[in-house]
Amino acid sequence: MRYLVLAVGRLRPPFSDDVEHYERLLRRQARVEVVEVREDEALERRIPERAYVVLLDAGGTAHSSEAFAAFLEQRRQAGLDVCFVIGGPFGIALERRDHVLSLGPMTLPHQLARVVLLEQLFRAHKILAGEPYHH
To answer: Which domain range does residue 64 map to?
Structure first.
């Protein structure tokens, strides 16, 4: 399974260190690529044609870690790569999307949203493997 995280803006420390940490941990479970674009308009052009597109937005559906793991497993069983889209500081109106995901009811800085998303991807794979994940 492949995850593509498309995000507006350049990641800076301390967030970049955290993203690199989770990318390293995830390499054992899945292929993860984080792509940064300068502006919202460039996002849609970078979405792979056959990907399941998940837009991150505070108004989307929130999942528990276990439900998120099950959601990812459904995509894997369907043979779909997942493309997560994170807009800039003001969000993004994305026409092509299959699911809108909320990381919680509070608005997060878009750089922190990348860290939380990658941590949850790592946690989901630990759950699916039946390994401890509350560490």
So the answer is: 2-128
